[in-house]
């Protein structure tokens, strides 16, 4: 990159304000305008008391700011040379549209920088003492969204056969498809699943069950969005690991 961009797409992390990167904090402190998504913990905005705040929530199904409006606003500030931060929950490149937004801006002559954040799936697993990879148990992790724009189905059989730990985002409204798809795809009915709601926040809740019980268990637990699912043998390892954090015990 030749010069420092004045527009930044930045990950705010999963909720715990201490999980913000130092680079994100520095760019926030320097920002003139901050456009904030609604999964961002408001405490993080302490890093940019001087900035003009624009809230641009986009929660699925709720009242939200149209993407075209967000894009145009970013472009306007970008072209004015304003120091703009677009702050997103978790990591901006994991189901965060950073790729689309950066490309849209680049096509119009504005280069955006991107700063990683800790994505909710990684933070949620760690908060529950679940190692997403574990020698002899899981040699990989697959991050998937259960929600697609065209309602097409994922390749459940491929995911079931892959043998990696699955981390499912945006799955709360599609638990039935996940359970049925993976079981029909050959995943064992007793595969452990952890559901982790509001990961890394004081409101975190977690629960473990078997795949065949996913819908029933989530309903009894009253699982709500935002939540991630961790599906794989590694969930069993959680009990083996000493906890150093408060919200750690998986009930199940
Ligand atoms: N870019 C974000 C993901 C945005 S998609 C990231 O990297 O984390 C929104 C989905 O992320 C939610 O439906 C939920 O599945 C997940 N999510 C975001 N924050 C969460 C949190 N604190 N706890 C659990 N899941 C979360």
What's this entry about, in short?
This protein has 252 residues and is an alpha/beta fold. The protein has 8 helices and 10 strands.
Structure explained in plain terms:
The protein is α/β, with parallel strands linked by helices and 252 residues long. It has 2 domains: 7-115, Tetrapyrrole methylase, N-terminal domain (Cobalt-precorrin-4 Transmethylase, domain 1, 3-Layer(aba) Sandwich), CATH 3.40.1010.10; 120-237, Tetrapyrrole methylase, C-terminal domain (Methyltransferase, Cobalt-precorrin-4 Transmethylase, Domain 2). It is 28% helix and 19% strand. It contains 8 helices and 10 strands. The strands form 2 sheets. A 5-stranded parallel sheet has the order 3-2-4-1-5, sandwiched between helices. A 5-stranded mixed sheet has the order 6-7-10-8-9, sandwiched between helices. β6, α5 and β7 form a beta-alpha-beta unit. α5 packs across α6. Residues 243-248 have low confidence and may be disordered. Bound molecules: S-adenosyl-L-homocysteine. S-adenosyl-L-homocysteine binds next to α4 and β10. S-adenosyl-L-homocysteine (SAH) binds next to α4 and β10.
């Amino acid at each position: 990159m030749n010069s420092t961009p004045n527009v930044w797409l930045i990950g705010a992390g999963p909720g715990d304000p201490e999980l913000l990167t130092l680079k994100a904090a520095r760019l926030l402190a320097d920002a003139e305008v901050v456009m904030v998504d609604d999964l961002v913990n408001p405490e993080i905005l302490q890093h940019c008391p001087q900035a003009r705040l624009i809230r641009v929530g986009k929660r699925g199904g709720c009242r939200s700011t149209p993407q075209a409006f967000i894009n145009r606003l970013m472009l306007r500030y970008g072209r004015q040379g304003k120091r703009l931060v677009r702050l997103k929950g978790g990591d901006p490149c994991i189901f965060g549209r950073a790729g689309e937004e950066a490309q849209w801006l680049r096509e119009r002559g504005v280069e955006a920088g991107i700063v990683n954040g800790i994505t909710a799936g990684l933070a949620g697993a760690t908060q529950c003492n679940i190692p997403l990879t574990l020698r002899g148990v899981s040699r990989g992790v697959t991050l998937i969204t259960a929600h697609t724009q065209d309602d097409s189905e994922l390749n459940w059989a491929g995911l079931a056969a892959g043998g990696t730990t699955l981390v499912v985002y945006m799955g709360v409204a599609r638990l039935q498809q996940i359970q049925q798809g993976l079981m029909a795809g050959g995943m064992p009915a007793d595969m452990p699943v952890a559901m982790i709601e509001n990961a890394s926040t004081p409101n975190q809740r977690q629960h473990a069950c078997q795949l065949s019980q996913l819908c029933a268990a989530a309903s009894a637990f009253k699982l709500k969005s935002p939540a991630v699912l961790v599906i794989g043998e590694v969930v069993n390892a959680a009990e083996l690991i000493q906890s150093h954090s408060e919200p750690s015990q998986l009930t199940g």
